[in-house]
Amino acid sequence: MTPKQVSVLAFLALLTIVFVQLLAIFRLFVIPILWAIILAIVVFPLYRWVFRLVRRRKNISAALVTLLVVVITTGPMVFFSGTLVHEALDFYGKLAQWTASHRLESLQSLLAGSPLAGLWAEIQVKTAALNIQLVPVTVNFLQKLTNTIVGQLQAGAKNFLVFVFDYLITIFALFFFLRDGEALARGVKGFFPLSREHQETVIGRLEETVSAVVRGVGITGITQGILAGLAFWVLGVPYPLFLGLLTAFLAFVPLGGAVLVWLPCAGYLFLADHTGKGIALILWGVLVISMVDNFLKPILIGEKTRLPALFLFFAVLGGLTQYGFIGVFLGPAVLTLFLSLIQIYRAEYQRD
């Protein structure tokens, strides 16, 4: 082995050791930094507009946009926090009490005397053949679900300081990503072993994908939450603020989504002998709340990202499973990066 090769190996070993130590140092800040990057990509066009408005002053522009993000992300939560916490705790207490008092049996009686009696009888026959007692299984599931959600609320309360710390790190990093974003982007592009044209293509598609997913999922979730909350309030469903917020959060979930909230609420109205209101909520849920998801997301996400709908669905669901909530945005970004690299490979290395 030549002295030059020994020198190269020693340098690579040193680089690896330093990189591992750097990962250990930054491990605590990875998720907040990723959130800051996502937010910076979304609001960067606004930053450019403010930058021109304040005569190209970077610090003032970044500070104004960062302050706007703080107001948007914390304002509603602070304003509704008291009511929201009270509704959430009361809701889960009542749910646990309801499942423990065998109220589900009344739903079984209601179904037996409804136009759905034939379908319900068929379901009972099929489940009985499999030795499944549907009502006890459902009660057990609801009890476990209630305990799990209450446990998550308690864990969230215990980790509140961690959440505040992560949020402050995100906002702090967001300011610098906005102020120095263009210089940082040029530095990142240099790490890609690609031509300048391909670097611009990859980074551009990543920016488009992240912006489209954040705007599409965010606008859809907020819209569904508002529509559901208003319906719950008008129809007299208890805890409309909490359930509307829950609808907005579950709108991020590809499977089920808002249906997981408004359908049980319709069931509650039926159980409370408000059949007309229950039918109205089902119609509103099918024709309005869930239709928003089918209408807005393809427009805001599909057309912008140019990703196949099936792959986008699995990317969001897989990202959510792998990385948690932030995976809703990371999944499509990784898919976009992969497809962009495949496109570059075909253009550069499969030429005739």
Provide structural commentary:
85% of the residues lie in helices and 0% in strands. By secondary structure, the chain is mostly helical. The protein has two domains: 1-188, no CATH class; 192-352. α2 (30-53) packs across α3 (58-100). The longest helix is centred in the N-terminal third of the chain and has 43 residues, at 58-100. It is elongated.
Blueprint (SSEs and pairs):
Layout: H1 3-26, H2 30-53, H3 58-100, H4 104-112, H5 117-129, H6 134-158, H7 160-179, H8 181-189, H9 196-235, H10 240-250, H11 259-271, H12 275-305, H13 309-323, H14 327-349
Helix pairs in contact: 2-3, 2-7, 3-6, 3-7, 9-10, 9-12, 9-14, 10-11, 11-12, 13-14
Features of the shown structure:
352 residues; elongated
Tally of alpha and pi helices: 14
**Tertiary shape:** elongated
Biggest beta-sheet profile: none
Tally the structural domains.
Answer: 2
N→C terminal distance: 40 Å
Give the proportion of residues in helices.
Answer: over 70%
Portion in strands: under 5%
Compact summary:
The chain has 352 residues and is mainly alpha-helical. It has 14 helices and no strands. Helix content is 85%, strand content 0%.
